[in-house]
Write a structure and sequence with these properties.
The structure holds two protein chains of two kinds.
Chain A lengths: L4 E3 L7 H22 L8 E8 L5 E8 L7 E10 L6 E10 L1 E8 L10 E10 L4 E11 L5 E3 L3 E3 L12 E7 L6 E7 L4 E7 L2 E6 L10 E7 L2 E2 L3 E6 L1 E14 L3 E12 L9 E7 L4 E2 L13 E4 L3 E7 L21 E11 L8 E11 L3 E7 L4
Parallel strand pairs in A: 10-17
Antiparallel strand pairs in A: 1-2, 2-3, 3-6, 4-5, 4-7, 7-8, 9-11, 11-14, 12-15, 13-14, 15-16, 15-17, 18-19, 19-23, 20-22, 20-24, 21-24, 24-25, 25-26
Chain B lengths: L3 H12 L15 H7 L2 E20 L2 E19 L6 E8 L13 E9 L2 E4 L6 E3 L11 H14 L5 H12 L4 H11 L4 H13 L6 H8 L8 H14 L6 H7 L5 H14 L5 H7 L5 H15 L9 H6 L1 H14 L2
Antiparallel strand pairs in B: 1-2, 1-4, 2-3, 4-5, 4-6
Helix pairs in contact in B: 3-4, 3-5, 4-6, 5-6, 6-7, 6-8, 7-9, 8-10, 9-10, 10-12, 11-12, 12-14
Classes of the chains: A mainly beta, B alpha+beta.
Chain lengths: ~375, ~325
């Protein structure tokens, strides 16, 4: 529950009741005051208040407290809460009790009904001793304005890489903009996102792990002016898996063959990455020769930018001119003579080998006349 | 003569070249750049290849030992530049396997060359040429127009092998010009199933949704034995490019394809539409025996209805608890009837 804002306004007597009270009971009230030796308002209080709950519910209340030990007072309160835009109202009706009474109301959160909620209470009190209405006024209060957050709801994460076209940092803004101080918090999913760079009513959000549920499993709230916003949902997206596509094997007049192993890069929501994507391979083990005295060379790992979510790993045999041992051959048909293999990993988000989010590990298995990825693990921890 | 700097810039641009499809770790074929940056663009036959000495070249900032080679090209047409005679010798290199294109005696094609201090060299070692056939009629127009005409001749020629025709379609895919699109449309109406399929995929990639029905006919006709690569290209194009709700009837047909990858693509396309009209077919797809199809369906339903709390999490979790999601959405479907 947020802090209470309360305002007491000048009591406004009802003319007809005030007239009765003054003319018929003035002498009795004075006598009672002298008799009890207490100030008329000693310890008595009447007010209205309002607050905003963590789920955005606005609460209003009114209190009339005219307690005496003699139990001769009866308190009345009737509270109404009014929303700023839609003018929704919640009314308690007149409540009453001996000595003290509280009338509560509430309105549920409505994102289209934001602003200053006003609570008004009619406070009354009756004394059986003097048989008079000695309190008859209105009090009014306001709920603190519920701040709201605006901004993108998707932030991309590439394990520190920052590919163009993918917002890896997003800026959230709080409203109202004149609340003074703002306190931003990750209310859920703090293991997936960070806040940084707060300036005035804005903060930046960056990812640090992928979301595991749709719809925003990262919640961000802002507290301003004594009220806290509803959690603003953010989804951390990023490359998660490589989905193998078709494989083609072709002759290459200089290297024997080209095996094209096609893939689609998908994110953690199982959707293809939406724009051009830098990616890279890297080696995770030394070359192991399967063919005795093989002299096939391993090139350096490479990285490129794919124009979309697809790419192919082009694996070649070895240059005839080396001369290669064994001599690569041209498919088809495909043989089954292994030549060598080594470990490979794929990362997305950077064309620099070793940078970006890892999406797959496998082994490159080169045969005499073609190549394949074996032992594929995707997603790769 | 082009400076070394411009050649270097061309090489850099080839690393990040953006063209439809042909995404590969090997830099993408970018014919427009090749036409713009090439000093000599020649249609001809490699008459001879000779071995030179060892040398060092630079690949992605790494110094790599390579074998220097030279080839003699017998020119049939010159699309750009001037030749003193019909034979030109150019250099190329054979490094350790790096994705470089092969050059062999007898290869006929459109070769893209540049002039350097040390002579004439291949402009883009990953794509030293694109396929061509002898006898193509001469055309006028820009370099791109003429290259397009050479490729179009290949795809229309009965003399070309299926592989060569596919290579020609790949070349046309990399050209986003009216002439290339027209050539792809001609190919998409042709008899060569593989080339036709690849051409339809290229047309879908450039937003030609009228080709979705022909695509569906190909994908639903398994007995024709189309090659796996064009099918993959086609399903990828459907998954990533088909967003118009008008495509829903065709996608519904594809949800009944015997090929799992086709059904997955159809479900993913329906999901990505974010349209109420996709709800019923996605509900039907929930019952698919393939987990990925059902996953896309459940995700799509959650996204379209805004009920993301009942969208699936990671695929592994969905597989473990698939029935929970299916039951929820089936109950939801019954409640709205």
């Amino acid at each position: 529950m947020n802090s209470i804002a309360q305002v007491e306004i000048e009591p406004r007597r009802r003319p007809q009741r005030a007239f009765v009270s003054i003319l018929q009971r003035a002498s009795l009230v004075s006598a009672l005051a002298l008799f009890t030796a207490l100030p008329l308002h000693g310890g008595w209080t009447w007010y209205s208040g309002a607050s905003v709950g963590s789920d955005g519910t606005v609460y209003g209340w009114g209190v009339t407290d005219v307690s005496t030990s003699t139990m001769v007072h009866f308190a009345y309160a009737s509270t109404t809460l009014t929303s700023p835009v839609k003018k929704r109202q919640a009314a308690s009706g007149m409540r009453s009790a001996q000595n003290s009474v509280r009338a509560d109301v509430s309105l549920p959160f409505d994102p289209n009904d934001l602003g200053t909620y006003v609570v008004q209470t009619e406070n009354e009190a009756f004394c059986y001793l003097c048989e008079c209405w000695f309190l008859n006024c209105w009090t009014e209060g306001q709920a603190p304005e519920i701040p709201t957050i605006s901004g993108p709801q998707t932030v991309w994460w590439f394990n520190g890489a920052t590919p163009s076209g993918y917002p890896v940092s997003i800026t959230l803004s709080a409203w109202p903009t004149n609340a003074g101080s703002y306190s931003w918090t990750i209310s859920s999913g703090s293991d997936k996102a960070n806040l940084s760079g707060q300036t005035a009513n804005q903060t930046n959000v960056t990812g640090k792990a992928l979301s595991t549920a749709p719809g925003g499993d990262v919640g961000v709230t802002v507290t301003a002016g004594g009220a806290t916003s509803n959690p603003y949902p953010i989804t951390v997206r990023g490359p998660k898996t490589l989905v193998a596509g078709a494989t083609t094997d072709q002759c290459n007049s200089n290297y024997g063959y080209d095996s094209f192993l096609n893939y689609t890069i998908k994110d953690n929501l199982s959707a293809p990455l939406p724009s051009s994507t830098p990616l890279s391979e890297n080696w995770t083990s030394a070359v192991t020769n399967d063919y005795t005295n093989a002299n096939w060379r391993r090139g350096d790992p490479q990285g490129y930018t794919s124009p979309d979510s697809t790419f192919a790993d082009d694996i070649q045999g070895e240059a005839f001119s080396l001369p290669a041992n064994p001599t690569p051959s041209c498919p088809p048909p495909l043989g089954s003579t292994p030549v060598q293999h080594w470990g490979q990993e794929w990362r997305v988000g950077s064309s620099t080998p070793g940078s970006g989010a890892r999406v797959q590990t496998d082994n490159i298995q080169k045969y005499l006349d073609h190549a394949r990825h074996t032992g594929i693990v995707s997603p790769a921890p | 003569m082009r400076s070394d700097l411009s050649s270097f810039l061309l090489f850099l641009s080839s690393l990040v070249a953006v063209s439809p499809g042909n995404a590969t770790l090997v830099p993408n074929l970018h014919l427009e750049s090749l036409c713009n940056q090439g000093d000599l663009i020649i249609v001809g036959l490699v008459a001879d290849v000779r071995r030179g000495g060892e040398t060092t070249i630079n690949i992605q900032g790494q110094s790599v030992e390579a074998l220097s080679m030279s080839a003699e090209l017998s020119a049939q047409k010159v699309l750009k530049g001037k030749l003193a005679n019909a034979r030109v010798t150019f250099k190329f290199f054979i490094p350790p396997p790096s994705g470089y294109g092969g050059i062999a005696r007898g290869q006929f094609g459109v070769f893209f060359l540049r002039e350097s201090k040390s002579g004439i060299e291949i402009l883009d070692p990953y794509h030293p040429y694109v396929v061509a056939l002898p006898g193509a009629p001469g055309t006028s127009g820009t370099c791109l127009d003429q290259v397009t005409a050479e490729l179009a001749y290949v795809v229309a020629s009965a003399a070309a092998s299926a592989r060569t025709r596919m290579d020609a379609v790949e070349g046309l895919r990399s050209l986003d010009t009216p002439a290339a699109t027209a050539a792809l449309e001609t190919t998409a109406r042709g008899r060569d199933l593989d080339a036709r399929t690849l051409a339809i995929a290229a047309l879908l990639e450039r937003g030609k949704m009228a080709w979705l029905d022909p695509a569906a006919r190909v994908l639903l006709s398994q007995e024709q034995g189309v090659d796996a690569y064009p099918v993959w290209r086609l399903t990828t194009a459907i998954e990533e490019r088909v967003k118009d709700p008008k495509a829903i009837p065709t996608l519904i047909r594809l949800l009944h394809a015997p090929d799992t990858t086709v059904r997955r693509a159809a479900a993913a396309a329906l999901r990505s539409m974010r349209d109420q009209a996709a709800i019923d077919p996605l509900l039907a797809a929930l019952a698919d025996k393939d987990d990925d199809v059902a996953y896309q369906a459940a995700f799509g339903l959650a996204e379209i209805t805004g009920d993301l709390q009942h969208g699936p999490g990671p695929m592994d979790d969905f597989k473990k608890d698939r029935q929970k999601y299916v039951s929820y959405w089936q109950t939801w479907a019954e409640s709205r009837r």
